[in-house]
Amino acid sequence: MLHLRAVCPPASTERALAVLREHPGATHLVLFAGAAIDPKGDVLEADVAREATDEVLAALCDLGIDRDGGITLEQIDTSLSDAADKAELDAPGDGADALVWEELVARTGEESRLNATYLAFLVIACLLAAAGVITDSAVTIVGAMVVGPEFGPLAALAVGLVCRRGDLVRRAGTALAVGFPVAIAVTAGLTWVGGRVGLLDAAAISGDHDVDFVYQVGVWSLVVAVLAGAAGMLSMTSAKSAVLVGVFISVTTVPAAGYIGVAAVLGQWGKVLASAGQLAVNLVGIVLAAALVLLVRRRVPARNRPLSRG
């Protein structure tokens, strides 16, 4: 279940109470009259079954509470209550399958911001990938896959496309368009320094290696990207975050970016192009699959639809 708190203008309180009282998926309703200071108003709290949350949010937003007051949601880890059990039983659908669109938009929006932390993780991931390429270490490549933060902007891009949220599309696109070139440039720079001090030469990526799969783009690259994108979006929309680790390990976005930096410095331009192709195929495949999952979930069931607000 989710804990809902709403700051209501006094004029909207009775109608908001009616929404929460009448919905079978809401329970533990509490009113703190006049408790809100900024913005001024009443505070309503309730526990809402996950599968009922979108419907309740839509009704409250129709009252203008999101504009004149505020609504917050928090995950409830443990609830010992017959009333809560009844609310979950009475609410239509299954909590594990429920998609809370506002929660998804907020989460992907936060994870797609271009900031120092995002850039640091992406640079570190690409450097790990470069180290894996140079040392022919598949284990290090896997580590780079796990560290990479790129699924956040990719998921936000899919959400933005499906929900027609231009702000999300622009934010995610900027994070990807700036993040990868910066990470590749830093990787190339440090690779060049390594070459100057004698730590590596062209032989590092010549011949056959265990990590050659990083730049070997083909049909299966797209297949894996599509499956990973679908699994990743299902993970995000069902709150099964542990699955995301498996998604990161399955795609070669960050390893391909790291390989570009190493191969460019060592003059292996064929592998630069192949790695760039691998990166592009993975990025496009993930976004398309994630968007398709959202389109399907947007229609089945119909009540779990994104709210349209400005």
Secondary-structure topology with pairs:
Blueprint: E1 2-8, H1 10-22, E2 26-37, E3 40-48, H2 53-62, H3 65-68, E4 70-75, H4 82-90, H5 101-111, H6 116-135, H7 138-147, H8 151-163, H9 166-196, H10 219-237, H11 242-250, H12 253-265, H13 269-299
Antiparallel strand pairs: 1-3, 1-4, 2-3
- The shape is elongated
Q: Tell me the count of domains.
A: 2
Radius of gyration: 24 Å
> Strand order within the widest sheet?
2-3-1-4
Alpha carbon gap, first and last residue: 27 Å
Mean pLDDT: 87
Number of helices: 13
**Most strands sheet:** 4 strands, antiparallel
Order of helices and strands: EHEEHHEHHHHHHHHHH
Please report which band the strand proportion falls in: under 5%, 5-15%, 15-25%, 25-35%, 35-45% or over 45%: 5-15%
Which residue ranges are poorly predicted, with pLDDT under 50 across at least 5 consecutive positions?
301-310
Q: Percent range for helical residues?
A: 55-70%
- Helix and strand composition category: alpha+beta
Strand tally is 4
